[in-house]
Write a structure and sequence with these properties.
472 residues, alpha/beta, Rossmann fold, N-(1-d-carboxylethyl)-l-norvaline Dehydrogenase, domain 2, Single alpha-helices involved in coiled-coils or other helix-helix interfaces, seven-stranded mixed beta sheet, two-stranded antiparallel ribbon, 9 strands, globular, binds 6-phosphogluconic acid
Length: 472
């Protein structure tokens, strides 16, 4: 019996599309899903002349694969992954490879690597970004962990990944669960950029009074220039989408409560855990939480209804400033996420190659943008940059947009338009670029009430003072 090169478990939209992508690139693939219907239908959706087979049981699936078996899991993160592993590992042989391509939590991946290694099996965590379409036509793929297993998969991964200038958007992201970690941070940055775009939209619709057709034009222009990116592109298109129920613009019919599956929250938790400042990502996570207080927000808006918007003198230049502010705040969000990767790489001994991270984010993934080309050049010159803001060429871009970020932030503040992402991007920048922060005072307070000690600027050591109360 002819054996299949790859196996995919989980034939939801993402799994099925990834499977078809592998098949389109000349590999034979078997698929399995608990829902037998999905496996039965698999062959119908495949490209003609590709070799695809849906299997009816895990046993059939496993025995259909060539050895060492190369199995990709595309099941929801968490318990479903453990359930699949529990069922499949007794059927596998030493040397077989299981790749988890879902948004799994990196610590779960570490545990699973150890569990499978004890049975002589290779387990890898691999981030995949690009949504349904990307999975089929070329995602950005972030594999990490077992190098031996990675090298076996590499030719396939390179053929199915998105390409930028002929280069595949996949590379080895580092040891252990680095693949999941990099994908988690990707999503954190995704949250921040989406938050920032939504704030720019709010300013344009409330201050510049732009309607959806005009918003479409603005985003189209932005996407045609230096702001070209997947998220700007889809936002442009959203403004043109009509609702089939009301025939109005769909965006205006959508309730302003944002959902979240959790990867953004993990990113923030991680940053707190290992001591990295990523406030724009944090605020993007918490803004989605705040958006859910719809009833309270409605009551509060009645109570504090005195907000008055003063239109800017020149609408054209206001729009330009908002664009520049969005561009710079986006850059600062990437800087925060990348700085988290730098620290995590040390903390967990991942050895994450930052240059390759930005290289493979240039195409296929949700946060792809032409700006990443500039980061790629920066890391090519200096792979050890601790923060992209320290790069000379990047600093020139930052300086050219800073005035716009300040005026946009100020405009939003003066007019009572919530712009948490824009404010925190600017606040982070100002703190990061300040030689002398006022936290000497915080240290004094801590020492005053808690004897927590402090360091001095003029000599080494740790000091404590018996602070004098001036209470009489
Ligand atoms: C991607 C996406 C994808 C998904 C996330 C975000 O890279 O293809 O990031 O992984 O959209 O799960 O979802 P939430 O916004 O629901 O957290």
């Amino acid at each position: 019996m002819e054996k299949y090169n790859y196996g995919v478990i989980g034939l939801g939209v993402m799994g099925r599309n990834l499977l078809y992508n592998i098949a389109d690139n000349g590999f034979s693939v078997a698929g399995f899903d608990l829902d037998a219907e999905k496996a039965r239908e698999l062959e119908q959706g495949a490209t003609q002349n590709t070799v695809v087979k849906g299997t009816a049981s895990l046993e059939d699936f496993v025995s259909a694969l060539e050895t060492p078996r190369k199995i990709i899991l595309m099941v929801p993160a968490g318990k479903p992954v453990d359930a699949v592993l529990e069922n499949i590992t007794p059927l596998l042989n030493k040397g077989d490879i299981v790749v988890d391509a879902g948004n799994s939590y990196f610590k779960d991946t570490e545990r699973r690597i150890a569990e499978l290694a004890s049975k002589g099996l290779h387990f890898m965590g691999m981030g995949v970004s690009g949504g349904e379409k990307g999975a089929r036509t070329g995602p950005s793929i972030m594999p990490g962990g077992d190098l031996e297993a990675f090298n076996l998969l590499k030719p396939m991964l390179e053929s199915i990944a998105a390409k930028v200038d002929g280069e595949a958007c996949t590379a080895y992201m580092g040891k252990s669960s680095a693949g999941n970690y990099v994908k988690m941070v990707h999503n954190g940055i995704e949250y921040a950029i989406m938050q920032l775009i939504s704030e720019a939209y709010d300013l344009l619709r409330k201050v510049a009074n732009l309607n959806n057709d005009q918003l479409y034009e603005v985003f189209k222009e932005w996407n045609n220039g230096e702001m070209n990116s997947f998220l700007i592109e889809i936002t442009r298109d959203i403004f043109q989408q009509k609702d089939s129920l009301t025939n109005d613009y769909l965006v205006d019919q959508i309730l302003d409560k944002a959902g979240a599956k959790g990867t953004g929250k993990w990113t923030s938790e991680q940053a707190m855990e290992i001591g990295v400042s990523i406030p724009t990502i944090d605020i993007a996570v918490t803004s989605r939480i705040l958006s859910a207080y719809k009833d309270e927000r409605m009551k509060a808006s009645q109570l504090y209804s005195e907000k008055q918007i003063i239109a800017p003198e020149n609408i054209e230049s206001f729009i330009k400033e908002v664009g520049d502010a969005l561009y710079l705040a986006t850059l600062i969000s990437y800087a925060q996420g990348l700085s988290l990767l730098v620290k995590a790489s040390e903390e967990y001994a991942f050895d994450i190659p930052l240059k390759d991270v930005v290289k493979i984010w240039r195409g296929g993934c949700i946060i792809r943008s032409v700006l990443l080309e500039k980061f790629y050049s920066a890391y090519t010159q200096n792979p050890d940059l601790s923060n992209i803001l320290l790069d000379k060429d990047i600093s020139e871009i930052v300086k050219s947009k800073l005035k716009s970020l300040r005026s946009t932030a100020a405009y939003a503040v003066h007019n009572g338009i919530s712009s948490l992402g824009i404010q925190t991007a600017l606040g982070y920048f100002d703190a990061y670029t300040t030689e002398s922060l006022p936290v000497n005072l915080i240290q004094a307070q801590r020492d005053y009430f808690g004897a927590h000690t402090y360091q001095r600027i003029d000599r080494e050591g740790v000091f404590h003072t018996s602070w004098k109360s001036t209470n009489n």
